[in-house]
Amino acid sequence: MPFGRLLMRRQRGDDLLAVVRSTPFGPVALLWSIVSGQPRVMRVLLSRPGRSAEELVSGAFPQARSAEVPQIGALADDIRSFLSGEDIRFSLSMIDLGMCPKFQQEVLRAEHRIPRGMVSTYADIAGHLDRPRAARAVGNALARNPFPVIIPCHRAIRSDGSLGGFQGGIAMKRRLLEMEGLELKQAGMVDLGAGRLRYLF
Q1: pTM for the complete prediction?
Q2: CA 41 vs CA 7, 73, 78, 91, 199: distances in Å
Q3: Domain boundary among 38, 55, 83
Q4: Among the residues of the chain, which ranges form H helices?
Q5: Structural domain that includes position 192
Q6: Does residue 95 fall inside a structural domain?
């Protein structure tokens, strides 16, 4: 079942909340709720070429209402700072991974370990998870990452050094990597020969 539909089934119409922040890449929206008495982020929506995060929220989650608590507001501010170029490491403690399938959770946790200024490949992540033939499945799991930026899926690329996809668009992925210190080739490829740029777990 698609994550958005599962989220709508799990959340009552009055308890899915939204926070929006302006960033250099357009608005970013955090959908959140109270889980076991604590505020937890259910999804992060990036603006895409031709469609803002606010439009994505109103189109896919019309029941969400605008509300903020200090913890969620601080996380939203950190995301805005990150997208402005600041070096911020996000904890997983504020997100709800429970709606993701087990394999996707494993992929997302592995991706979260990749430090700023480095990249890994879908194949390397699959190998790390003892599933060496699952590179495509890893790519699909990251394409459906509900928590972009918090889980930095822009740091996963193809084995040939090409960037692959990204929810916010390929231009945003390239710019984020450049902001983190990676020098991309003229064709938009990452030089995997530069050892410091590759994270092998």
Answers
A1: 0.91
A2: 11, 11, 14, 12, 27
A3: 83
A4: 3-10, 53-60, 70-83, 102-112, 122-128, 135-143, 170-179
A5: 101-197
A6: no
115-154 per-position pLDDT tens digit: 999 999 999 999 999 999 999 999 999 999 999 999 999 9
Task: Please state, in angstroms and rounded to a whole number, the distance separating the CA atoms of residues 188 and 191.
Answer: 10
Same domain, 106 and 192: yes
Based on the fold, state whether residues 109 and 31 are members of the same structural domain: no
Residues annotated as catalytic (active site), given as ranges: 153
Strands 65-66 and 38-46: unpaired
SS3 126: helix
Query: Tens of pLDDT along the chain (201 residues)?
Result: 454 554 544 544 458 999 999 999 999 999 999 999 999 999 999 999 999 999 999 999 999 999 999 999 999 999 999 999 999 999 999 999 999 999 999 999 999 999 999 999 999 999 999 999 999 999 999 999 999 999 999 999 999 999 999 999 999 999 999 999 998 987 789 988 765 678 888
- Total domain count for the chain? 2
Q: Are residues 156 and 190 in the same domain?
A: yes
**Same domain as 128, residue 46:** no
Co-location of 118 and 172 in the same domain: yes
Residue among 21, 28, 17, 22 at smallest CA distance from 56: 28
